[in-house]
Amino acid sequence: MKAAEIREKFLNFFASKGHTIVPSSSLVPANDPTLLFTNSGMVQFKDVFTGKEKRPYTRATSSQRSVRAGGKHNDLENVGYTARHHTFFEMLGNFSFGDYFKHDAIKNAWELLTGVYQIPAEKLWVTVYQEDEEAYSIWKNEVGVPAERIIRIGDNKGARYASDNFWQMADTGPCGPCTEIFYDHGADVWGGPPGSPEEDGDRYIEIWNLVFMQFERTADGVLHPLPKPCVDTGMGLERIAAVLQHVHSNYEIDLFQKLIAAAQREVQAQGHAVEITNNSLRVIADHIRACAFLVVDGVIPGNEGRGYVLRRIVRRAIRHGYKLGCRKAFFNHLVPDLVAEMGDAYPELAKAAAQVQAILKSEEERFFETIENGMGILESALAGLKEGGQLDGDTAFKLHDTYGFPLDLTADVCRERGMTVDEAAFDAAMDQQKKQARAAGKFKMDADLSYSGVATEFKGYDELSVANAQVTAIYVDGT
Ligand code: ATP
Ligand code: MG
Ligand code: MG
Ligand code: MG
Question: Domain Alanyl-transfer RNA synthetases family profile: where (predicted)?
Fold first, then answer.
C-alpha cells in the first residue's frame, strides 16, 4: 500500500465514523508565538480544545504536515541516527472535541489497524499512562490485548528516546495522559519493548499516540481541566507506511526511496559514486522535505527564530552532500523530485515550486562559499583530538562566526567521529562577542547622541538589542 493510499484510507475511515476531513494547516502556527512550528495535528485545533473557539463539527480528521526541529519536540538530532525520525513528517489524526472519549478512540484505532490495514494483532503492543486504569481495562477486556503486551508507563526519563505517556504540545497548552501503540518489527532488529532498558532500539516502533486531552497547562505550570475531555491522536504516515510496506525503516518506504535516489543522482552528477543505502542520502532526503515545506509556508532562511532553524537544516543537508563529494549546489535540484512525490497531496507545494527552489538555491550557494574553508579548519582541529575527545569552544565559535557553521552542524560532524563540542565554551565565546558588539554599539550611539545633541533619539535598550542582533547576524553569515 503506497503512502498516498494509506493517507486516503485513514481519512476515509474516520469520515465514515462522522469525522469532518480538515485540510492540513501551515507549518507556521497561526497567532501562536509559544510554538516554533506546527509539531502535530492538534495544533490547529488548540483553541477548540480549550473552548475558546467553536467549530461546526465535534469530530475531525486530518493529515497534518509537521516539523520537529527546534522547540519542545525536536528531532533534528535524531535524523540520520534512528529509523523512525524525520524533521518533517505527516501526522494522521482524529480528534474529538468533547464528543467521544477513551472507548471510541481506542476501539477505532484498533479497528483501523487490524481491520482496514490488516496488521496482525500479535505484532502490536500498547502502553498506557501508569494510573490510567480505564484505558488499561479497555485494552485488556474490551479489545482483548493480552496483559503481557500492555505496559504501564509513568515518567520514564531514563532512556534517550524514553516513552512518556503524558503528552503536551509545548510548555503551555492542551495536554493529557495518553496510550500508545507500538509495532514489533521482529527479532532481526535490536531493541526492547517500551519501558525496558533496550527501548532505545528500533525493534518496537511507536506508531500511534492517542492522547486524552484533559488539561490546559498555563505559563505558571498549573493544569486546568478543559471544559470537556477531548481526544487527539497522531500517527506518523511514514511509520505506518513502513509497517504496511514490510520494511523496517521509514526511509525505505516508497516516498523516500524516490527522494533518496534523486539525492544519489545529484551526488553522482558531480562525479562521486555513492551507495543508495548511504546514511547521508537519507538525511538529505529528509531535509529537502522540511526545507521546501517551510519555504512554502513563508519561512525564509535567516539568523533568528524560524528562519534560523530553516538555515540550520539547509546547512546540515549541504554538509552531508559535501561529505559525499559535492562541491557545488545540489540540494535545490531536489525540489522538482519532491514535487513529483508530494505535489498531488500538497498543491501549494507544486504551485510555489519555482520560488522554493530559487530561495534554497541562493541559500545553498552562499554556504558553498564558506563550507570548504570551514571544513578544513574543523578537520584539522579534529585531527589533533583522540577518539572521544572534545572540540574546543573557540574553534566551534570561529566556525560559527566566520564560516556560518551552526553549532549543531559542527556537533553533528563531531558526533560522527565519536567526539563532542565544548558547548559551554562556545556559549562563553558567543557572550563575549555580544558584549563587545554591545559596547561598540553603545560607543557609536554615544557618538551619535553627542553629534546630534538630541537625547530624545535614544529609544532604550530594545532598539539597542535589535541593532546587536543585526551585528551578530552579519557575523553568523560569515559575510
Ligand atoms: P518517538 O517516541 O518515537 O520520538 P513521539 O512519542 O515523540 O515519538 P508523538 O509526539 O506521540 O511522538 O507523535 C505522534 C506520532 O507521530 C508518533 O506516534 C509517530 O508515529 C509520529 N512521529 C512523532 N515524531 C516523529 C518524527 N520525528 N518523524 C516521524 N514520525 C514521527
Ligand atoms: Mg519524539
Ligand atoms: Mg514516544
Ligand atoms: Mg508518543
Answer: 1-479
State the ipTM, two decimals.
0.99
Looking at the CA of residue 233, tell me the nearest atom of ligand 1. 14
Report the distance separating Cα 233 and Cα 220, nearest Å.
26
Residue 40 has which C-alpha cell? Answer: 502535530
Which of 6, 125, 239, when mutated, tests ligand 1's pocket best, judged by the most ligand atoms within 8 Å of its CB?
A: 239
User: How far, in Å, is the centroid of ligand 4 from the Cα of 382?
Assistant: 37
pLDDT at position 472, please?
32
Mean pLDDT of 353-367: 98
Q: How confident is the model at residue 362 (pLDDT cuts 50, 70, 90)?
A: very high
For the chain, the average pLDDT equals 90
CA dist., res. 92 & res. 19, Å (int)? 13
The length of the chain, given as a count of residues: 479
Q: Which helix (H) or strand (E) holds 60?
A: strand 59-67
Q: Where are the beta strands (DSSP E) in 194-277?
A: 204-217, 223-236
For the entire predicted model, the pTM comes to: 0.89
Question: Dihedral (C-alpha) 275, 276, 282, 285: value to the nearest 10 degrees?
Answer: 120
**Which residues, 6 or more positions from 298, have their beta carbon under 8 angstroms from its beta carbon?**
26, 28
Q: Which amino acid is at 101?
A: F
Angle, CA 352 vertex, CA 320 and CA 15 arms, to 5°: 95
Tell me the pLDDT tens digit for each residue of 90-135. 999 999 999 999 999 999 999 999 999 999 999 999 999 998 999 9
